Hints:
Elements: H1 26-33, H2 37-46, H3 56-74
Helix pairs in contact: 1-2
Amino acid sequence: MSGVKVLKISIPEHIGIDEHEARLTLKQAADVAGLCVEDFMKVLSRRKVSIINLDEEELNEELKVAEHIAGESKS
């Protein structure tokens, strides 16, 4: 695995993640770090870690929904 760092962590059972899941939600990751979500987001921001993990198709769908909601609020 050249160029890849492997990090193994223990996740407390109360976090509620299956051992075969590959991702944590933002809330779950904040819980593991012992921080509230807002503070965890600030730490990620300072370290230049994006909290948005969408592919192009998912991002376009989210933008369509946001535009639809924005259009409804103007009515």
